[in-house]
Design goal:
The chain is built from 4 helices and 6 strands, in the order αββββαββαα. By secondary structure, the chain is α+β, with helices and mostly antiparallel strands. The protein has one domain: Aspartate Aminotransferase, domain 1, CATH 3.90.1150.30. It has a 6-stranded antiparallel beta sheet with strand order 1-2-3-4-6-5, covered by helices on one side. α1 crosses α3.
């Protein structure tokens, strides 16, 4: 990916993230794997352009599988280990990335329920 394309990709991601952060006070910028990311509370939500991977977002495993099967996403395996709740969407697309980030917010906002625990 060229520096120009990488800059456009990062700009789109952070523009979408800023829109979501304005609507959700639990969202904030953080760090993951020595890079910038977006979190919802203590949960990681998304990052951009990890070694040319475009948008990387945390979603339910079934949704990740659907995106991969449809050819829209790719498995995210930063150190050779596939993360079943993460998908890489390399092609910048404002509408799609916005939808996936919204789905991700809904997914990571309830980690206790996602892991089969009840909130206290």
């Amino acid at each position: 990916m060229s520096k120009e394309n990488r800059a456009k990709t990062e700009h789109l991601f952070w523009e979408l993230a800023a829109e979501l952060m304005a609507e959700n006070p639990d969202m904030a910028e953080g760090t993951i794997m020595n890079g910038r990311c977006v979190r919802v509370g203590k949960e990681f939500l998304a990052l951009v352009d990890y070694k040319g991977s475009g948008l990387v977002v945390k979603l339910p495993p079934a949704r990740v599988a659907d995106l991969i099967d449809a050819g829209i996403g790719r498995p995210f395996a930063p150190a050779g280990r596939v993360f079943k709740e993460w998908v890489s969407v390399p092609e910048p697309n404002r509408e799609l990335w916005g939808e996936l980030l919204g789905e991700g917010v809904a997914f990571v906002a309830k980690p206790a329920m996602r892991k089969g625990r009840t909130r206290q």
